[in-house]
Amino acid sequence: MLKVFQLHVSIATFAGMIADGLLCFFAVLMAASSLHLVPGSSAQAALTTPHIFLFASGFAMVMSLLYAFVGLYRPTPIAFGAMLRRTLVALLVGGYLTYLVLNQLAQREYAEQLMLSVVLYLLVGLVVVRGALFAMRRLATTPRVLIVGTGPEAQSVATDLMTLKRVERDVVGFFATDPEAAQSGTMRGHPVFAGDQSIEDIVDANQVDEIIVAVREQRGGGVPMDQLLACRIRGIPVLDLAGFYERAKSEVPIDSLKASWLVYGHGFVQGRARKIAKRTFDIVSSSVLLLIASPIMLFTMLAIKLDSKGPVLYSQERVGLGGKGFMCLKFRSMRTDAEKDGKAVWAQKNDTRVTRVGAFIRKTRIDELPQLISVLKGEMSMVGPRPERPTFVKELKEVIPFYDVRHSIKPGVTGWAQVRYSYGASVDDARKKHQYDLYYVKNNSLLLDILVLIETVSVVLFREGAH
């Protein structure tokens, strides 16, 4: 796992992105070179060498972006058939767009021959490169992990280590912090080491590469901090529960979270430079999206008017930066009597209050396009926690620890929780989403904002997330 600008990236994903980019770059170079060797080709109309390198770089960047747009780099596993279809879609779109550009720079015959050769080289290369990456993952040595603790948290960590591909580890065993747990001998097929054994000796005897302290309460002498410090000094990484889940799932678990971790931990950067960069990004991106989406918005307004009685837009009070309220604009997707008794009700999946047009615009998130106006006004950001209604905020603050932390930044049109968690329509879902919101607040950066917008495209196109 790599950490790039506060963003946790899987090494396998990073390697795949680099390999795909290089493959696209060299596919152009090989195609251009091969045309010179084919009798009767239009090589005399070829681009000059500097232009070919520039074109190859542009093609690599376009294809890398399209691969991200179709969700090839998302952490959620994709079936081979779906991955193949998405790759072909990206290749067709990217090939056509670059052909249009190339057609303006060179003769049409040369452009057609070059792009056909590029696609053929790329298809062959994809098979070879993906096969090589798969073989490397199979042959690579899996890091060995010792889990400190034997409770529910430790067992949950063990399950995640064995099932999550991005953090797959070989669990050596559990170090018992409770004398009674040590008597069991084994747990989930792994040995339980008694607390009277030295963690340093266990690390040496079992060639442990990493230690995860999966104990919610570390005070009271159960966790041998002096032994963990000795291992850390020797270069063995030691993670607590919050650190593990931040790296493994890009979320911050609130059940095991302490205020001291928020106070002393890294991140939560809200300096002047970051605020200026984020505001500039919001103004530029929302303006561009409003311009592009204006025809869609006009058609949506007409469809809503024809489908059901009532206003096209509706405004609703939401809680924003610093806990202050603001009026959030959305396209109306429900009947006008959705809350006729005046009581706020959680939106449900397949909600019967949703109109026919509303069902479509909610799935595609078109209903949220008017929020771009709130972004321009400075009430919202392009990326941030989802703004909630005051009634729900009051309820959630009572049952979800550190819920107010999400109000330290502006709410967003889209966000880390929306692209990483499916559907949320209950307090339990709100707890889960809050863990992703905490991760975003802690690690927010321009790079993370761009990543969220890219993943939003994939979520909308393939309905991987939910409204």
Describe this structure in words.
This protein is α/β, with parallel strands linked by helices and 467 residues long. The chain folds into 3 domains: 2-139, no CATH class; 144-249, NAD(P)-binding Rossmann-like Domain (Rossmann fold, 3-Layer(aba) Sandwich), CATH 3.40.50; 272-462, no CATH class. It is 54% helix and 11% strand. The protein contains 17 helices and 12 strands. It has helices at residues 11-37, 49-69, 80-105, 108-139, 152-163, 179-182, 199-206, 225-233, 241-249, 259-264, 272-307, 356-363, 371-377, 390-399, 416-420, 427-443, 446-462, and strands spanning 2-4, 7-9, 144-148, 170-175, 186-187, 190-193, 210-213, 238-240, 313-319, 325-331, 381-383, 412-414. Strands 5-6-4-3-7-8 form a 6-stranded mixed beta sheet, with helices on both faces. The chain has a two-stranded antiparallel sheet with strand order 1-2. It has a two-stranded antiparallel sheet with strand order 9-10. Helix 1 (11-37) packs antiparallel against helix 4, helix 2 (49-69) runs antiparallel to helix 3 (80-105) and helix 11 (272-307) packs antiparallel against helix 12. The longest helix is centred in the middle third of the chain and has 36 residues, at 272-307. The chain is globular and about 75 Å long. The chain starts with a strand and ends in a 5-residue tail after the last helix. The mean pLDDT is 84.
